[in-house]
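**Protein record**
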Amino acid sequence: MIRTIFWKNNSVVLIDQNALPLAEKYVTCKSYKAVISCIKDLTVRGAPAIGVAAAMAAALGALHLPDLSPEKFRERFFAICDEIAGSRPTARNLFWALERMKKCFDHGKHCSQRNLVKILVNEAKRICAEDIAINREMGKKGSKLFADGDTILTHCNAGAL
């Protein structure tokens, strides 16, 4: 399976969909703003992948915030989420993922900032894992509809490649 997006060494790694199908290239984003750029320039595309990228961007943003009071930390994290939301205003999965990350933040708001960042990173990874599982299940169910040698035309980028 080609990994289209994953968390590695406190960075978000994305397959560069602009390079496909001629090359398999990856972009490593060390800041949430770099992920925003990748969403805007179509490096990452397809509603599910955009949602995963948004969740990982939010986690990356939280990771790089300085030590703040709980109120300021929440304010800054939610501002980061709002900035990410502006990257692709028509992508529903992006908003769904950011809403989930905000809920995760609020559930963990009594934790230290350090622990809350870990919770957010784990939630972003969980969103990614869930997307992969959903795609595998769709593939398993869909495979029953086709015989060996059938030609399949796909439309859009709807999840894992």
Q: What stands out?
A: DSSP finds five helices and three strands in the chain.
